[in-house]
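User: C-alpha cells for both sequences below?

Assistant:
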Amino acid sequence: MPDRPQQRAAWFLRFRQSRDGQPPAAHLLQAWRQARRLPVIRPRRQLQSASSPATIGGNWTELGPRPETDPSYGAVAGRMTAIAVDTGKDPSGNTVYLGAADGGVWMSTNALAANPTFTPIGDNLPSLAIGAIALDDSTTPTTIYAGTGEPNGSEDSYYGLGIYKSTDGGATWTAGTGVNFFGSAISKLLVDPASPNILLAAVTEGGVYVNNNLVNSTPAIGIVRSTDGGATWSQVTAFSGHSATDLVYDSGKYYAAIRSLGIYVSADQGQTWQALGSPFGSESTTAQNFYRASLAIRNGAIFVLIADANGTPTQASDCNGATTCAGLVESADGGATWSALVLPANLYGSNKQGDYDQFLAAPANSSLLLVGGIDVWKEDLAKPGWTDLTNAYTGGTVHADEHAIAVLSPSAWIVANDGGAWSTASAGASWTDMNASIGVIQFYSVTPDPTTAGRLLGGSQDNGTVLAAPGNLDWPSIFGGDGGHTAINPQNPQQLFTENYNVSVQCSSNGGTSFDPVVDGSKITEHTEFYVPYVLAPSNPATMLLAGSSIWRGPACPATVDSGWQAISPSLIHPDNANLTTSNDDLTAIAAAPSSADVIYAGAFDGSLSVTTNATVSGALPTWTEAPAASPSSFPGPVTAIAVDPANPSTVYWGLGYVGSNAYLYKSTDGGNTAVNFAGNLPGTPINAIVIDPSDPDNIFVATDVGVYVVSDGGGAGANEVWTKVGTNLPAATVLSLALTDVGGTPTLIAGTHGRGAWSIPAIAPPGIALTAVPAQAVYLPGEPVTLNLSASPANGYTGTISLACGSPLPAGASCTINGTQALVTGISQSGAVEVPIVATGSSNGVVTKTAANITEGSFTLQATPTTMTVGAGATASYYVTLGGTAGLSFPASVSCSGAPPTGSCVVPAPFTASPGSTFNVTVNTPATAGTGGGDSGNGAGGSGGWLLLLLAAGLALTWPRKRTRWAVVAMLTLASVACGGSTTNCACGAANYQITISVKDATPNTVNPVTQSFSVLLSVN
C-alpha cells in the first residue's frame, strides 16, 4: 500500500513543537546531554543458588527486526538516506557506509557480497537522523563525516544537530562549530579532492519545525564551508534564507541547487558563487517551480531533476505555461542554456512525493541517466526511453521510495530507500538485497504477546505490521503499508490488531494469516490523528475503544466492517481556542481503567483530559467531564500518553508532547480534579508512553525521545521527583512505544524505537531508598503541631547509610525538624491542603529519595441526643454525643460540661483520642429538691432570685404614682412570675430549666489557641 509521507510527517512533528524561541533541535540536544548526566540502573547480581548467580538489569537486548522479511522485497531494514563508499582504501567497493533516517551510521567491509554484514558505528551520536556521509580516505583510518538531519522532506525524521567527525572508525565523534545547525538537515557533504581539510555541505530543513500554528521556526542556511577538517564551519551568506538541496563536484568546480534561486557554481572551492542560467529559460526560478532539485554532471554536461512545491515534476503550469519549464533538464554549455528532457511517467506516484523521493545520477563512461522516485528508472540517452528497474508496487523485489544512490561503475550501483539498501552489478537487471544484518525499522508501536514470551507485534513506518517469533531477530511482515498502533487480545492471542493511516483498524483472528477491517472512515468521518489511538477494553478485550474527535466503541472483530460501532461521547476537543482550529485538534491518547469498565480517559491535542465514570450506562451517552487539572488554555502541549493505576481507577497519569526546558508528566489521585507534575529531572522531551508495574504500582516507567526512565515511589516526590535512566546501551533513537510483560518469568520492558527496532531489558526498579511518612495524608487542627513517623530502608540492592532531612519548600509559616525517625512540623499558617517534603539521602551512588507528606487542615463538630430532656428532681440525665468532621482527623480530646444545677454535677469521659465518628456519654446529676437550686447557672430562675424580683416590683408599684410606671411594674411582676417557673404563687420554684453546654477541646500539647467546639442541650427538672 502506498504510504502518506507528508501526512505521516505532520503527525510526528506536531507532537514535537517548541514553546519558546529555540528550535526543537536545540532542546533535543539539551535533553540528550541531560540524559547522559542522570543516574543509570547498573547490572547487579541476584543469587539463584550458591553456584549460579544471575545478572539482572543494566543492558538492553536488541530484539529486531534485523531484518524484517517482506513477501515482496525480502530482507527489509528500514529507511536509508545516505551512502558513502571508501574506494580510496578499498577499490573493490566493499567498504560502504550507510546512513539511516533515525538509525545512525552503519558500516560494512563486504557490502557487495551475496550476504553482506553491517555494523552500527554511530549509536552514540546525539541525533541518529543521518542526511549525508562523506569520507576522507587520505587519513588512516579513514575520517568519517556524518551530517545529521534527514533532507527528504520527511518530517518524521528527527532534528539534525550539525556535522560530526570521527577519526577512529566511529568509536567517538566530535561536532563542528561556527554555524547553528539546530533543526537543519545536511543534504550533501563533500570533501575537497585537492584539499581534504576543505569541506562543503548543502543544508536544508530537516522537517517542518513548528510552533502552535505549524509555521517554520528554523531558518534556512544554504551552503556551509570548513577549511579545518570540519572543526569549524562558516555560512555562505549569499544563500542565507534558502535551502540547498544538492551539491556536486566536477573538475575543480562545485555546483549547488538552491531552493527558489536555481543553480550556482563555484570555481574557488566554495568561497564565491555565480548563478547559472535559469533551467526554465525566460522563466525565473521560484520556490513553487524549484522546490527540490538533484544534480548530476558527466563530461561537462549538467543534468537537473526538479520537483515543484507540490511534490510533482516541475511542469509548464509551474511557469505560467512556458514550454521550457520541465522536471528534468540538461545543459551542454556549463549552465548558460538548458533543454528539457522527458521524465518517466508517474515518477513520484499519485501521492506527489517529489520532495520526499528523489535522486539523479549520470554514471561516468556511459550515456545512462538514473532517476529515483517511487522506483529507480534508467534511460540511455543514446536510445531514449525510460525503463523501470524496480517496479516496487507491481512485483519488483526492491523497496519503494528512493532516496540516495552511489555509482561504482556504469553497471554497479547501490541505492537506498524506505526499505534499506540494494546493490546491482548488472545495471539494474538484477538486485542484491543488502539488509540481512541491518536493524533500523521505525516502529510506532510494539505489543508483546501476554501469553508467549518473545512473540511481538509491531507497526512501522512504510514497512507495515510485523510479527516476531520467540528468539528470532527476523520478523516477517504480515500486513503492508504504514503500520500504526498494534494490540493483541490477552484472552485470545490469535487475535491481532493493527492499522494503516486514518481510520483503518484491522483484525486478524488467525494469528496474522489474514486481516479484516474493523472500522473505517465511512463510519467515523470526524477529524482524527494520522495514526488513530485505540485500545482493547481491559474488562472485555472483545470490545475496542477508539479516539477520533469523540470516543467510539464497538466489537473488536465485527462480522462486517463498522458493524456495532457507535460514538459514546460528544466531541471532546476545543477547536475554537486561541491555539487550534478544527483541522488540527482531535483526540491523541486514550486509556481505560483496568479495574473498572466504567472509567475511560481521553486526551486531546489541545492538552485537555476528559473522563467518564459511567461508560457502561445503557440507553444514553456516558457522562463526560473535562478534568480541571488539564486545562487547555495555556496549551503546554498535546496529551501523548495516559496510564491508569491497575487497582484504582481514580489514579491517572498523563504526559504531554512538550519540547522545552522541562517535561510535563502529571499524576492525579482524584480522576483529574487535581494533579501534580512529577516530571522532576526528566529531560524536556515528549512523554511517549507510560507504564505502571501491576505488581507494584509505585514503579512507573516512561518512554521519551531520549530514553526510558523509572521511579519507584509512585510519583510521591512531586516536582522534586528524581528519575533513573533504564539501561546504558539503548541507541539514541526516539522511543515511541513501551510495554511491560512478565510472561517469561522475569518482568521485562519492551521498547519500540523510531529507527532502531525493538529492545528489551529486565524491568527492575533502581537501587534506592524506600521512604514513607505516616500518616501520608495527615489531618491537623489549626495551631496543632504535626508529627510524622518516618521509615527509610534500602531498596532494590542499595547499600549505604541513609540520612533524613526536611525538604523545601515548606508551607507558609511552618518549621520542620527531624528527631530520629520522626518529623515535627509546627506553625502551619496556610489553610487547606499543604505538602511537607521529606528527603532521604544515601551515602553511596548519589541516591536521593523524596516523598511528600500531605497535610490537610481539619475541623470537627459535635451533636448530642436528645437535645431536650425532662427529669424529676434527683434523677440523672444522659446525653449521647457524636463527633463529626474531616475524614482522617485524629487528636487528643478533653471533654467538659457546664450549666448543671448548682448542687448537681456533670460527669464526662476521661481524655481520649477523638476522630470523626467517635461517641461518648455525658450525664447530669440533679439535686433531690428541685426548688433549692437557683437558676443562676441554668435557664430556671427560682428561689431567692425570683422572690427578690417580686418584692422589688411590689415596692415600685406602691411608691411610683404615674400610670405608665404602674404598667411597667405589672410587666416586671409578670416576668418575675415566669422566671419562677411560670407561677406567681409557687415561689419555691419546684420546676427549673437548665442549659447544659458540652465542650470538646483539642488537647494536643504545645498547641497555640487550641480548637474547642461546643453543643448545648436543654434539661428541665420538675
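Moving on to the next sequence.
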Amino acid sequence: MSAGTLSFSGRRPSAVPLLLLAGGVMVRLFGCWAFRHNLNLDAGVVALMARHIAEGSAFPVFFYGQAHMGSLEAVFSGFFCRLFGISGFAVCLGTAFVSFWLLPIAYLWARGAGGRAAGYATLAFLVIGPGGFFHYNASPRGAYASALTLGAFVLWYATRMAIRWSVARRQSGWDFLFLGLGSGLAWWNSQLTAAAILAAGLLLLVCFRRAVFSRRLVAAAGGFLAGSAPFWIYNAVHGWPSLAFTGTFGRVRLSDGLTWFFRDRLLGLLLPGFGPAGLRSAVLFLIVALALFSLFILVRAGRKGPTTVFITLLGILIFTAAFALLYASSHFAALDTPRYALPMVAPFAVLLGLAVGELKRRVPVWLASAPIVFLIFLQVPVLDWARSFERAAAQEQASIEKLGEQLEAHGVATIYAVNRTRSWNFALRERFVFVDLVHDFYRPHQERAEAATEVAVLDNYGAFESFLRVTGGRAERFRSGPHTVHHRAVPPALNRRLLPEDAILRIEDPAGEEISAVLLDGRHDTEWLSPLGRGRGWIEVVFSDPARICGFRLISSRLQGYPSRWSADIRTPDGDWRPLFEDVPLNHYFWSGPRFFWGAPFFRLEARMEPLTVTALRIRDVSDRPIRYWSITQLQIFTPASSPPVESEGLTELLDLLRIRRIRRLYCDRWMAHRVYEASEGAVATPRIFDPPRGSPELRPEAVRPDPATALLVLRGDAPAARRRLRERLLPARETVVGPWILFDFPPDRWEEQFRHSPGLLWFGWGLLLEEARWPRALLDRAEVLLRENPGDERIPELLQASRSARPGYPEALDLLHRHYRYRGDTGAAEEARRAFLEATEPAIPAPIRFRSGLELLGYNIERETVEPGQTLVMSYYWRLPPRLNPADHLVFVQFRRGAILFADDHILLEDCSESWMESPSRSGIFRLDRVIEVPEGIAPGPVDLVIGIYDRRAGRRARAVTKLARWRSRAFILPGGLTVE
C-alpha cells in the first residue's frame, strides 16, 4: 500500500486531514467552554488585556506585568470579544485560534518529510495533545499558544527552505523575509521560542553554507525587526525590562538541568502526574525507542545525501539540543512543571509521525499505528478533567459574583487583596478593583487604588487586623462565603506630638552599643544594623525621667529592613517590665489622612497606644525565620497632645492658601497628595506613589527642590523635626497653621538664588530627613552663587568652611576663598587660601600615570624623605577621577621595595570617601588622600623604592596604564623620589 493510497480511516485520503482538523477545532472549542471561567492569575490578566483592546481603552504590546511575553493572543482575544461580546469564552477563542494553526503547520511539516501517513499520525496526536498542551491551547495563560505555534512555524519554514535549496539550489528572498517576520513575531511573543529561532538559523547555515551570507540575510533581518518591532520599541521606551530574563541563566547546574529535562519534564509532558509505575515505564520506553529510531533514520538517510527526511530530522535534532541546553541552564529547569518544555510537543509529534510513516512500510497498519493509539488513549482523560474543571470554576464564579453584590451593597469599590485575585477584576467586569500593589503591574489599577477615598481589605491581606490593633484604628467587616471584607476603616486620633530628643537618655542594642546618635540624627544615610541573628535583635530606649508616651515610629531606608515579627515591652516607674505588643506580624500599612495606604517607598512601622508613663521601651525582633539584617534609620517616640482638627476639614483652606501663594509643588503625605492633585487638576505637583520599589534593596525618597513655588505640608505633631531639618539646611521657611498641619514655604521676599542648591533634604512622606553626601557640594554651590552676585558677602567664608569641614576633598572651596579675600583686599588671607589651594591640587613630586579607566595619578607628597624603623610618616596621593568612576572598584597597591617587598600601603581608592565622592564629586576631579604609614622595625638602612599600581576589582586584574615612569614589573610603576631608611 503506497503512501498515496494509505488511509487509516478507510475514507479518501484528502478527507482525513480535514476531519482531523475539524476534530482539532471541536476539541479547542470544548476547551474554550471548559476554561471560560478560568480564574487563574495569568488567564485573568490576559482577559483584562483582551477586554481593554476590545473597548479601545488600551493596546498593550506585552503581557500586563511581564515584559517578556508579547500580547498576540490578547489581540485575537480582543477581536473575538469585539465580535461576540466580552466574555471568558470569547477570550479563550483568541488562544484557541492561535493554537489551531499549529495543526496544519505540524501536518505539512511531517507530510513533507514522511508522506501522508506521517502527516496523519502527527495531526492525530495533536488533535487533543498531552494534558498541558491541551490546557494551554485553550486557556489564555500568556503566550504559550503563540510560542508553540510560532516556534513550530519557524522550524518548519526553515526546514522547507533548506529542503528546497538542497533539491533545486534556488531560494526566493521572500522566503527569508517571511521566515524573519515569523521569527520576529515569535521573539516578541515569548523568548521560549529562542531555541526554535536559533535552530532555524543553524539549519540554514548548515545547508546554505556561504550562500546564506547575501541579500537574503538582509531580508531575514528586516523581517525579524519588523515582526519584533513591538519588543524593541517598548523596551527602548521603558528601559529594557525584557532583558531581565537573561538573569534566569546560570542559576542551575547544567548537568542537573539536563537530567531533569530528559528524565522528568519530557515524561511529564506526555503523562501529567506521571501515573502508575507501569504506565510511566511504558511511556519512557516509547520516548527512548522513538529517539533511537529517529537517530537510525537520520544516519541511514544521511548516507544517501541531504534528503528531505535527513534535513527534517537534522532540524529537529538541532532544535532539541538547543532547547535542552537553554532550558537546562535556566532557573525554569528547577521548577517542577513541564509547561516550560511545551515547545518540544510539536517536534515530538513530527518525530512520532515520521516513525509511524516508516513503520507502516514494514509492518501492518494496525501495528504501525499502535504508538499513536496508545498516546491518544493517555490523552482522553484530560477531557474529563476539563469537565470537572469547568464545574468547579463555575461554582467559584458564582461565589465571586455573590461577593460583588455584597461589595456593591456596602459601597465598596477598591479592595487590597492577594495577587491571585487580579483575575476577579475581569470576572466582575471591572466594577471593582482588586489590587496587590506589590505584585500588580497594571498601572491604571494602581492609580485607582491610590486615588480612592476609601479602600477595603480582603481576608486580612497584609496582616491588616494586626495593623488595626497596633495603631488603634478600627474598621467594619462583613462575610461573603469564605471571605471576610474589612471596610469603612477609621484612623486613630491625631492627639500626639514628637517627644523631645532630650527626654531620651540613651538607646542601646544587644552588643551594649549606645546608638542614640545614629537613630536620632535625622539622617537618611546612617543606620543601625542588628548585630545578632534570627529573632534576637532588640533596641532599648531609656528615658531621662519617666516619660508619657503614646506611640513610636521606626523608619528603615531598606526595602526589607524590618523583622517579619516584632514585639515591644515597657518598663514602668516601679521598675517592672510588661508586654506592650506581643508577636506582631510585619505589615506594610500606614495611616494618611482619613484612610490607610499600602507602604511602597514611604513605609514606616508605627505603633500607637493609650498614653503610658514609662522609664524604658524595648522593641524586639521575634522573627521565626532568618532575616539578612534588621535596619533602623530613625526612631521617633510620640507623647500625648491636644487633638487638632481632622485632616479632611482643612482641605479647602489649604487649597485657597496654595492658590494665593502660587504654590506649584507641594510635598505632603499620600492622602493629601491625591486630594490636592485632583482639586488643582494637576496644577500642583505632589508626590503620588503608584509603583512600589522592586529589585532594589534600598529606598530612595524624593529630594526636595526648594523655591518660592514649593511648599511642605507636615502634621503639627511632626512639625518640630521638619523645622529643625530646614534650619540645619539654612533655609528661611515661613510657617502657617492650616487645619491639623503646618505649611512650610519660602516667601519671595526672603528668597535668594543660592537656596536652590540644597539637595541634602529628602521627603519621606510625613517629614524630612537629611542626606549628608550631597550637602557639602550644595554649600560650595551656594558660596559660588554669592561670590557671583556679591564677591564681598560675609557669608561666603562660613559656607566654604562648613563645606570643607563636611568634606575636606574640595579644592574648589579654597579657590573661592582666595577670590573672596582678594576682592575684599585681605591680601594675607587670600595668599594663605591660594597656598592651601595649590597644596591641595599640585603634588610636590609629580608622577603622572593615566590608567585605562581614565583615573589619573598626578603625583604625591611625602612628609620626609628619611625615616627610622618604627617611625610613622604621612604620604599624600593626588588623584584625578573621571565622572562616573566608582572608587570602591579600584584598589591602590603601594609597595616599599628593596628588591623584595619590605612593607606596603595597600588601600581602596579614596578609602572611606567613595560614597560621598560619587554623590558630590569635585568639578576638577582632583582629590588628595593622606595616608599614615608606619615603617616596621628591623628594616635595614638604605634606599627604598616606591612602587604603585591599581588593581581593578571588577576585572580581577591590575589595570593597564600610560606613563613615562619606569616600570617595576607589568602594570606596576616606580615613583620618582623615594625613601631612605636610616
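User: Anything stand out in the second?

Assistant: The mean pLDDT is 88.
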